[in-house]
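the two lines:
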Amino acid sequence: MFKHRIANGMLTAKLISEVLGTKLPGEGTIYMGQELKFLAPVYFGDTITATAEIIELIPEKNRVILSTTCTNQDGKVVLSGKATVMKQ
Amino acid sequence: MFKHRIANGMLTAKLISEVLGTKLPGEGTIYMGQELKFLAPVYFGDTITATAEIIELIPEKNRVILSTTCTNQDGKVVLSGKATVMKQ
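prediction for all of em together
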């Protein structure tokens, strides 16, 4: 089905959790949920960039909803989804 | 917030992808999507068991929907969710 061996999608997803835990919202973030859609294969040697954008703030629950996207070196979206986190 | 240092939730989620790719549905599985709900913390030293149960088959699209659960050594569910995969 694929041209070459591909990387397990959860490895790509791991990059999202790194962004959430270190950049946005950053340290002290508690991961509550994540939706993942694997849209394109990641091949060995690809360079993947994970980005997160806040789409909703729920201050009364200390919750943040983020749109999360991973793109490869050609700008193709390989993973999209939504994260729900708690930020103290 | 937590008693001790906790493991990144995506490490627990990785166990689900191992089950899907090696057991059910097994080799040749293509990961299309995953919903994850992180329900309880995973502490260093915990033993986590990942299980998958087929909840829907869509033969005309070669799709399989599975309920995915990770429990700790005390039987507590630490992660629940749903996987969508394609099986050739």
